[in-house]
Amino acid sequence: MRAIWALLLWLLPRLALAQASLSGTVRDSVTRQPLPFASVFLVNTTLGATTNEQGHYVLPAVPAGRYEVAATYLGHRLRQQSVVVGSVPLTVDLALPPSAQALGEVVVRSRPTLADDYQRFIELFLGTSSFARQCQVRNPADVQVDYDPATRALTAGAARRPLLVDNLALGYRLTFYNLYFRADFADQSATLTTLSQVVFKELTGTDKQQKRWAANRLRAYQGSFMHFLRSAYAGDVVQQGFRLQRLQRLPNRRWAAADSLVRARQASGAILNQNSLPPSIWQQLAEPHVVSILYKPYLPPDSVRRAEASGRVWLRFRDLLAVTYDGERPDANCRLPGSVSGRPLPRYQESVLHLQPPPAAEVEPNGVPTQALALLTEGYWSFEKIGELLPLDYLPPAFPTH
Q: Where are the alpha helices (DSSP H) in 222-344?
C-alpha cells in the first residue's frame, strides 16, 4: 500500500531580507466594535500579536513576501486575508463574524468518537516517528472522528475549539484552527489530506532543552520536503544531498490478462478452483497490479527545474520523481505501507513526488509550492507528518535569506 500525503496549511510563500510592519484593527463584522485581546497571526509561522483594548495590533518586523494574516476571537469565526508585505508599512483591518453559538444557531453534533477511530486518526495525523511519539494533544475531547465503512474514509475535526498539540521533541505548541482531516483508503493506496490554519509558539525551557530542540529542529529539517523545495528553488539539490530519478508506473498487463480471464469464466457460470485454471494464471493474479520502473541514471537538476530571471522557479518532470536523501538515515520507527516487518530499514530516505496536475509546479523561496495541491508526496515524506512539521519562518544555520 502506498500512502500519499497532502498537507495544506494555507502556506506562507516568501522569505526576504526586507522587512516592514503590519498593523490594523480587528472588529466585530456586525456591530463594527473593536475586539480587544484578539489573536492575530501569520498562518504557519511563529509570528503573531494580540490586539490592545482598542482592537489594534502591530507586527513590527515582518519579512517581505506574501502571507495569510488571520485573526481569532472568542465567540467569533476565524477570518484571514492574503497580504503582500514589502518595505513600506502595511495596514490590514479584519472583521470577524459571530460564531453559530453567538448567533443562537443550532449546532448538530455527530455521534461520539470511538476510541479505535481516534487512535487511528492520531497515528495518521501526528505520525509514528520518534518525534511524533513526543507529541501530546492537549484537548482530545474536542476532536470529533468518524469512519464511514461505505466510502472507507476517516474524517476528523475540532469544531468547538482549536486543536492544541505540544511537540516536546521540537519545542513548539501548535494551534490548529478550522481543522479538517480526511484519510481515504483504496485497494493499494491511502490518501491523507489536512486543511487547517496553524500557528506555532515556541515552548519555554531550560538551556539544555533549548539546545535539544535546536538540534531536533535541524534534524527534522534535513531531508524534509521543505528542505528539498528550498534546495530546488536555489538550484543546489545535489549539493544538499538529494538525488533524483525518473519513476514510471505502468499497468501490469500479465495481471490484467489473467484477471480478465477469471472474470469471463465467472460470468459464464464456471466453477473456479485451483485445478480449473493453469498454474500460470494463478501466479499472474498474485503479481502486483502495477509495475514500477526506476530509471537508473540520476537526473540532472536542471532537467526538472525551470528558472526565470525574475526569480520564479518551477518543477517539471515526466511521470513521477523519485527523490533520495543520503544525508541522514531514516527514522528507526519508519515502517512504510507495504514494507515487510523485520526487514532492515533502507539506508537512505526515499520519497516519491507527484506532479498534479502537469506540466509544472511553481516553487517559492521558503520551500512551498505556490499552489498547495500541485505536489503530492509518498514514501518517506509521507511518513513524516506533524511530528516533523516546522514553521515556515524556520531557518537552519547558514540558510540564505535572499
A: 225-234, 253-267, 279-285
